[in-house]
């Protein structure tokens, strides 16, 4: 049986149009490149969300209610650096909560736990490895305290339109009334600003995309020539979708040993790599309604580039 990467590469590169899945960007090198992206001036998202946390932490605590015990479940916690601002504040306010970062990767969680224990020694941290829905379902049945779930950093933007509702409905099914969900949405803005964030001048985002071809070379015995693919992000201000493509600059064949396939590329044929959708506040409202939630409040940065939307 094929492993998930091999299976998805086989499906994606034999489909028309061709596509790969951005969830596979994050091998060890991809993690490092994403850290570099977050530090780029042009990638405003990280700083905008950090500003929301720094300036709206008091308001957030008022909304979710700091008097009652809760478990703060962060779906896809990454390095947790932004969340740290909120965790430290909740601690200073003597809130009774435990922090449960959830990730599919044990390795990511171990690193996060180590860092958090060193940086916030009194924090109650309970890392949970596994699928988001399984973890939430488990908490719902085993634990009776309130859940505040976080899905931050515009990760929601990486879902295509047909999958995002399905994802949110599954989260809804695994929460109880009275629980909260806070989602980080990147907002529609000047298309030039958005495009620059995904086509940075140092070429880090280009390397981030090409790294998936490199990963396929290494892990599946393929022979992609990275110099023959061009990084091409496009932004559609109507749908809010920033889509990244790698475009084959010439007609070529690529062999992928692990799936026993030779894939033909026409000159200028694209591989669709990633969607990073931007939302208007009205669309956030509609998405919440369509998936059984209601928006309690949107917390914005001063330039309204980003919204952390609190739902119930
Ligand atoms: C992880 N995710 C929210 C990032 C984004 O903005 O869509 C991934 C990324 N892709 C290119 N740059 C950053």
Automatic annotation (TrEMBL):
Pfam family, one: Methyltransf_33
Keywords noted in UniProt: Methyltransferase, Transferase
Gene3D superfamilies the UniProt entry points to: Vaccinia Virus protein VP39
Record bears the keyword rRNA-binding: no
GO biological process, one term: methylation
Entry-linked InterPro entries: EgtD (IPR035094), EgtD_Methyltrsf_superfamily (IPR051128), MeTrfase_dom (IPR019257), MeTrfase_EgtD-like (IPR017804), SAM-dependent_MTases_sf (IPR029063)
A single MF term (Gene Ontology): methyltransferase activity
Top-level division of the source organism's lineage: Bacteria
Domain Histidine-specific methyltransferase SAM-dependent: start-end pairs: 6-312
NCBIfam families: egtD_ergothio (TIGR03438)
Record-given protein name: Dimethylhistidine N-methyltransferase
């Amino acid at each position: 049986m094929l492993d998930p990467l091999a299976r998805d590469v086989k499906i994606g590169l034999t489909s028309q149009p061709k596509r790969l899945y951005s969830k596979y960007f994050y091998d060890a090198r991809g993690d490092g490149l994403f850290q570099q992206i977050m530090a780029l001036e042009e990638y405003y998202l990280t700083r905008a969300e950090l500003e929301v946390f720094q300036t709206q932490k008091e308001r957030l605590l008022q909304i979710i209610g700091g008097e009652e015990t809760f478990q703060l479940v962060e779906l896809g916690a990454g390095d947790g650096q932004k969340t740290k601002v909120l965790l430290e504040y909740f601690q200073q306010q003597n809130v009774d909560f435990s922090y449960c970062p959830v990730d599919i990767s044990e390795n990511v969680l171990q690193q996060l736990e180590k860092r958090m224990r060193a940086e916030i020694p009194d924090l109650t941290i309970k890392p949970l490895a596994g699928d988001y829905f399984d973890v939430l379902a488990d908490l719902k049945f085993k634990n009776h305290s309130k859940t505040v779930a976080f899905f931050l950093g515009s990760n929601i933007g990486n879902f295509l339109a047909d999958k995002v509702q399905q994802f949110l409905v599954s989260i809804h099914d695994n929460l109880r009334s009275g629980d909260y969900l806070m989602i980080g949405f990147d907002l529609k803005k000047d298309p030039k600003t958005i495009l620059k964030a995904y086509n940075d001048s140092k070429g880090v985002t280009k390397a981030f995309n090409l790294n998936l071809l490199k990963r396929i070379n290494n892990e599946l015995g393929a022979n992609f020539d990275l110099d023959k693919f061009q990084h091409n992000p496009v932004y559609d201000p109507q749908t809010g979708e920033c889509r990244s493509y790698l475009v084959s600059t010439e007609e070529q064949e690529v062999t992928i040993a692990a799936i026993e396939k030779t894939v033909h590329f026409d000159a200028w044929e694209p591989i669709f790599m990633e969607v990073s959708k931007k939302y208007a506040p009205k669309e956030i409202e509609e998405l919440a309604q369509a998936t059984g939630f209601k928006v309690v409040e949107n917390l914005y940065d001063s330039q309204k580039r980003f919204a952390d939307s609190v739902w119930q």
